[in-house]
Write a structure and sequence with these properties.
This protein has 804 residues and is mainly beta. 13% of the residues lie in helices and 40% in strands. Strands 2-8-7-4-5 form a five-stranded mixed β-sheet. Strands 26-50-49-29-47 form a five-stranded mixed β-sheet. It comes from Spirosoma endophyticum.
């Protein structure tokens, strides 16, 4: 029985227990309904990005696969159609940005690493437009190491020993006078790396009240009871003998505290203590990724206890929240339940070692629970050396743990290994030091008495899901006051073929949105308003939000790595020189080549007619549906309203290569010899918020406006659409001629397949060839099934000049 069915049955059991317990206060049901309503109306999305490796040289290509799932059940979804990827430096500045098409099967793409990138540690992050409504902590992130072998590395800057980041986390959230509490701690350096420490809790008289030692990854805990009118401080010492003093978090005179005890294999015990005068009751709400697992209420005087059957909790990170009698959250902590039946992936190569240019066959099989299952896999095969080690973090640890915790997690795979007392303690320390939720209780509970409408929910969010393609956003403002201007029509064009035009009317906040179709590759965007609205300022926003500076470890390259760096750099340059043309091939998507208005009622290929030197002569002599007129010394172009054989008195839309033109004098003066085709739509045409009284569309030979003098007030900018799909080049050595080719093969990335599918029995067979590069190679696979089961696996093999 897969995860979704088990979670669904647990929800039914929970609800039936609530309905069957007549004394259960209605407020419990209200809490449950509020969370469930919020989950359904505020869908959480998750992205996981599998990169072909974690170490790169400039001049190489980064290949990636995006897994796209819902945040509750980890099942593939088909809501957003665009993912955004960035490579950020230590200052949070983007050195690379791209947009990738998404579907229910995820997405995939490439990033070429140019020589303009300096050597260092970088962040790869990925998100959708919808995810921008929430904290950037929800974005996917992973570290990358990039070395530019064309620039001298130089000596690392000498820095004074930095102060440590030392944090304390009382269990449940707060320290309360007179109540014993567990206090977790976490110590890291300025680059975010964990630091092993020992420490002491002291009072004002320097009496030692508690001693502690970090357990794993700079984390640990101690227990004590805060007293009234006592000042506490914590002294922490690292392995080098450096000591640091920090205060404890605020100690409150009144409040609630909670303590979780993992008492047995099947049960959790939660003690709730308070010194609040005359408390009546407390609620416990446990949810896993916003799916309610437990909802109970207990009377309380000074203390009460909840017992939770672990089977009722979902797998992964669960939030255990305590509410007071007024249904206000007063305590919260996390608990991790490891997946019992992750997707099991088996990998097997047909040999342990291979010679140069030999065929490698890798058999992969997947099993979900007790049965085989079809899965979507991504596979990378690359050389391991002192530069590129085994990457940490896979789809299993990310979906079940990392994606539901704030900040970077050091060695996330550690917590998913076979459970031991040491792993269990380290996991609990991690839960104590990374408390968070994907929402604020204020947002969930403020409409608890009545379910908010979808309109109300949508108004809460600035960024919409991109259901059909990229959304280009901008704003219309008053240049003198900077205030938004509502109700202004704006036009967006992408000059060229096919002819596309997008129209938006600014809302009350002055925002405009254009939903693009078939938007691939680098484009030139032209945005404008009607010259009658020229006093307004029009801006197009970047779809990439600003990133904050995040500490990253300094690049560490030793002298012993000089030879591996040189070898890999030479191999990369050899590949680029000898195989570049074959290795860089793109797949161009099939798009609708017709203009947005379809086929015009009248269509003229001007080369088939007499070529007149003036546009006015062309329109008067043989374009039947257009009537040029002059009014107050300026030309106007009117379209024949064909159903009634009358001329539209209102002005028509006139375009050149899809760009609206509002000055007809310029159109008349434009050379018709530069125009290849002219279409006329002889009826009213509705496009978004506006009705056009006929359309006149002129198209140049190259679709590049042919030097037409555009209005200086419009906005023109380069803008990247969805990236084109690049094909991974996988040379074959099937014949003796191919095997004996003198072209060098310097590949260290032997194979990449982002869309490897297993058959109905859960099996697939992959074949590729080795190169001329010896070494140990790693086959790394991530996978996901339609029901949300995730897993990963690795296997290694050797490549030598001769295999005995």
């Amino acid at each position: 029985m897969h995860v979704f069915i088990k979670r669904f049955l647990s929800i039914l059991l929970l609800m039936s227990s609530l309905w069957g317990y007549g004394q259960m206060p209605a407020s419990v049901n209200t809490l449950v309904q509020s969370v469930d309503t919020y989950r359904r109306q505020v869908l959480a999305e998750k992205l996981f990005v599998h990169t072909d490796q974690g170490f790169y040289l400039t001049g190489e290509t980064l290949w990636f696969k995006i897994y796209y799932v819902d945040g509750s059940f980890h099942q593939p979804i088909d809501l957003s159609k665009v993912a955004y990827l960035e490579v950020l430096d230590q200052e949070g500045k983007a050195v690379l940005q791209t947009k990738v098409a998404l579907s229910s099967g995820g997405g995939n793409g490439t990033l070429f690493l140019p020589s303009s990138i300096s050597s260092g540690t970088y962040r790869l992050r990925a998100y959708t437009n919808w995810m921008k409504n929430f904290s950037a902590d929800y974005f996917f992130e992973k570290k990358l190491t990039i070395v530019n072998t064309f620039k001298r590395l130089g000596l690392p800057a000498l820095k004074a020993p930095a102060d440590y980041v030392i944090q304390f986390f009382p269990e449940g959230g707060n320290l309360v006078q007179g109540i014993s509490s567990k206090v977790a701690f976490k110590v890291a350096d300025d680059a975010g790396r964990s630091v092993a420490v020992r420490g002491w809790l002291l009072n004002a008289q320097n009496d030692t009240l508690a001693r502690f030692v970090s357990h794993k990854f700079g984390m640990g805990h101690f227990t004590f009871t805060p007293s009234d009118n006592v000042t506490y401080r914590v002294v922490v010492a690292d392995e080098k003998g450096r000591s640091f003093t920090r205060p404890l978090p605020t100690i409150y005179p009144q409040g609630y505290a909670m303590r979780l005890e993992d008492t047995s294999v099947d049960q959790l015990k939660i003690n709730v203590s308070t010194n609040v005068a005359s408390p009546s009751s407390v609620y416990l709400l446990a949810h896993t990724r916003q799916v309610i697992d437990v909802a109970e209420v207990r009377p309380i005087q000074r203390e009460t206890t909840f017992l939770i059957d672990k089977k009722t909790l979902g797998e992964g990170v669960s939030h255990l929240t305590i509410f007071d009698a007024d249904r206000q959250p007063v305590c919260e902590r996390l608990y991790f339940k490891r997946p019992t039946q992750p997707l099991a992936i088996s990998l097997k190569t047909d040999q342990k070692g291979y010679a140069y240019r030999n065929k490698v066959a890798v058999e992969a099989s997947v099993q979900s629970g007790a049965k085989a299952n079809q899965a979507d896999l991504s596979m990378a095969v690359y050389r391991l050396d002192s530069l590129s080690s085994v990457d940490s973090g896979n789809i299993l640890s990310y979906l079940w743990m990392t994606s539901d915790l704030p900040g970077p997690i050091e060695s996330p795979d550690y917590y998913l290994q076979a459970e031991t007392p040491e792993v269990r303690e380290a996991t609990d320390n991690l839960m104590l030091t990374h408390g968070w939720r994907r929402f604020r209780w204020e947002d969930v509970l403020k409409n608890s008495t009545a379910s908010p409408s979808s309109v109300t929910r949508q108004s809460m969010f600035q960024f919409l899901p991109e259901h059909n393609g990229p959304i280009v956003e901008g704003s219309v403002t008053d240049p003198s006051s900077g205030k938004p201007v509502p109700g202004v029509l704006s036009y967006l064009s992408t000059p060229g073929k096919p002819v596309r035009l997008y129209v938006s009317r600014s809302d009350l906040a002055g925002k405009i949105r254009f939903e693009m179709q078939d938007f691939y590759g680098a484009k030139s965007l032209i945005a404008q308003t009607n010259p009658a609205d020229s006093v307004n300022t029009l801006r197009i926003n970047s779809p990439f939000p600003a990133a904050t500076k995040v500490p990253l470890p300094e690049l560490s390259v030793s002298e012993s790595q000089t030879e591996p760096l040189l070898s890999r750099s030479v191999a990369m340059q050899v590949q680029s020189t000898y195989w570049g043309d074959r290795a860089i091939q793109y797949h161009y998507p099939t798009v609708d080549s017709t203009a947005f208005y379809g086929k015009g009622k009248e269509s003229y290929l001007l080369d088939a007619f007499t070529r007149f030197p003036r546009m006015e002569e062309v329109l008067r002599e043989y374009v039947l549906g257009v009537m040029p007129r002059k009014k107050q010394g300026h030309f106007q172009l009117h379209v024949l309203n064909e159903p009634y054989r009358e001329i539209f008195e209102e002005l028509s839309l006139v375009m050149l290569d899809g760009v609206p033109i509002f000055d007809m004098d310029k159109v008349i003066e434009f050379s018709p010899l530069k125009v290849q085709k002219l279409d006329v739509v002889t009826n009213r045409y509705l496009l978004g918020p506006v009705m056009f009284n006929g359309i006149i569309s002129l198209m140049t030979y190259k679709g590049d406006l042919a030097g037409f003098p555009l209005d200086a007030r419009l906005v023109k900018l380069d803008y990247d659409g969805l990236q084109l799909q690049r094909e991974f080049y996988n040379p074959r050595y099937d014949t003796a001629k191919q095997l004996e080719s003198r072209l060098p093969d310097g590949r260290t990335l032997l194979y990449w397949n982002p869309n490897l599918q297993t058959d109905a029995s859960g099996h697939t067979l992959t074949e590729f060839y080795t190169s001329d590069q010896p070494g140990t190679y790693l086959v790394e696979v991530n996978g996901l099934t339609k029901d949300g089961s995730a897993g990963s696996q690795r296997v290694m093999f050797e490549v030598k000049s001769v295999v005995k």
